[in-house]
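Why does residue order matter? Because the sequence determines the fold. Keep that principle in mind as you read this record.
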Amino acid sequence: MPRPLIRDLLTYAATALLALGIAFSAAAEGRSDASVKTRLDARGLKYTIDGDGDFKVTYNYSKDDRSQLVFVSGGTQVIGGFEIREVFSPAARVEKDGINGTKALELLAESRSNKLGSWELQGDILYFVIKLPDSMDAAQLESAMDIAAQTADDMEVEISGDRDDL
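Structure:
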């Protein structure tokens, strides 16, 4: 077989395998998104989907005249045979709220005592993050969301006072 033909066949095969991999990846992600949608709908939760594909829910604490954002990751990650989904809620902006080394150490210590979830930084935002097996049912997902939202809002009050930015 002439070399240009072999090269063309190899290029075609590689392109086909890449397209197949992308299709399988998109199909798996679509199932994950649909499973979250189904669970949130089952609990009657109102949500939007952000640009990253995460499900965004706004909690309203009317008694305290506050609100709190909570997100459910639109995708999952597999590690050690576990398919993990994240539930996360922003609590502060590091620079704006003056989170320093002392406060960071306090947050690490608090993370050690939390039974579910921990504090994490993503860019300039402090989040309370819960990582759970995606096999959780709708009630368990809502409970994780409740815990993340309340924990993050409590920390937002502690750090920023009456400001309700997140």
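The longest strand covers residues 82-93.
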